[in-house]
Amino acid sequence: MDKTLYLHKIQLNVQFTTMEQSFIAFIESSIKSNWNLDALTDYKGATLQYKDVARKIEKLHIIFEASGIRQGDKIAVCGRNSSHWGVSFLAIVTYGAVVVPILHEFKADNIHNIVNHSEAKLLFVGDMVWENLNESAMPLLEGIFMMTDFTLLVSRNERVTYAREHLNEMFGRKFPKNFRKEHVAYRRDDPEELAVINYTSGTTSYSKGVMLPYRSLWSNTQFAFEVLSLQPGDPMVCILPMAHMYGLAFEFLYEFAAGCHIYFLTRMPSPKIIFQAFAEVKPRLVIAVPLIIEKIIKKKVIPKLETPTMKLLLKVPIINDKIKHTVREQVIQAFGGNISVVIIGGAAFNQDVEKFLKMIDFPYTVGYGMTECGPIICYEDWTRFKPGSCGKPAPRMQVRIMSPDPENIPGEILCKGTNVMLGYYKNEEATSEALASDGWLHTGDLALMDAEGNVTIKGRSKNMLLGPNGQNIYPEEIEDRLNNLPYVSESIIVQQNDKLVGLVYPDFDDAFAHGLKVEDLERVMEDNRIALNAELPAYSQISKMKIYPEEFEKTPKKSIKRFLYQEAKG
Asked: Is residue 27 located within the same domain as residue 151?
């Protein structure tokens, strides 16, 4: 390695609390301590108290044991966020099986492939997902359960059938004098034991199953206890999909461990529903992706400040402070009026919106992470947060920037620590590319790091895009499909104003040979767009196509120079 290149790093003192390093201990302790408190509510629906959750966990444990499920067996969960999604997850990990969360927005063939690749023995599925699945495409499954009420939809094993049919009888025999908190005694997890396989992409040949051990779940939960201050009974709205680690770790697992009351938006979380829920639930903490924050600021707040009168008043010092205080209170009320902080992550944050939030002294902070770290890598409290950055290395994590001058020249972020994955499931090649033998994880992201350790993301060395809720979108996968459609010679998928746009250089020779004119190609590309979207998850739909009249510029290796087309208009 060149002597001028050095690794700039911040190493945090590893501070472990006196509590044992056990994620399952967090769950057991919370259930016992908060036995009679409300735990999980399906928004506008039923509520489960912590004792109800414990009872349902116990019943699922009985089903698992009677069905012959062993420690380390895989169990998949796929459906919209709900109380029973949370119950299923907790039951699987406390039993000792490995949970495979699958994003409900994935197309059926993607779900089939993930279930098969993970070798899941059981599947818990939401009703809307189940309508589109084909059980014969998942031959390894021994049983499929409906998540809404745990009814058995498909059984290929007599033990599974018997377990479900005789569940109440077996539960009654095990607890003849009622189920009580002293009966809650879960196994203890080993830090290096596999807990979760979380698939980073839903497309078949590109799917990578991130293997997260219990130490990662424990460390992310412990981190939240260290930097946040939720109390038993505090209300929380769960917006982000729990099949992604960001939502799972910080809208569910920490809150459950802290004894909070979690509300799940079981419908599609549109801004209208989200803000209605904020107004009713009055959450103590909001975990959000930038799009939600940007919409409320741009649509509800900034227009009121753009009037000539307000612009004039903002220039008067004393009045200026009063207006800022009033605006700050309005924004806090939009989030329910009870928040201590809004944590933003999952995608790049609009700089104008961030400047505005800083101007009114709004309690927000921006974190950084990835699925491979379950997810947290960087964070800073909002009172010390440096605008434009994504915080400093989180507890039990080290961060390096590979650059000759990390304060001025971006380099790839490397990280190491308790949060980092074991590797990619059944994919040694991808594991060795991402995870060095000494434990350093290559994130593929480019950043700067200042002398205080603040990390500022400058771009992605890979081409991955992020959907509105932080979903990973891989443009090459979409392009691969698009390039196979009629009269497409080559294409690029770019992101413009949070929408995906397909830039296409058509095969003009073929089109003209078939009697098409230029104006006909626009209709063909619109048909291609519709056909392509039929194969893609909702968050990676193409909003429009733009025809390019000439080939895209390429490198000597014949790769398209993507950076030339990111701002393409049309």
From this structure: yes
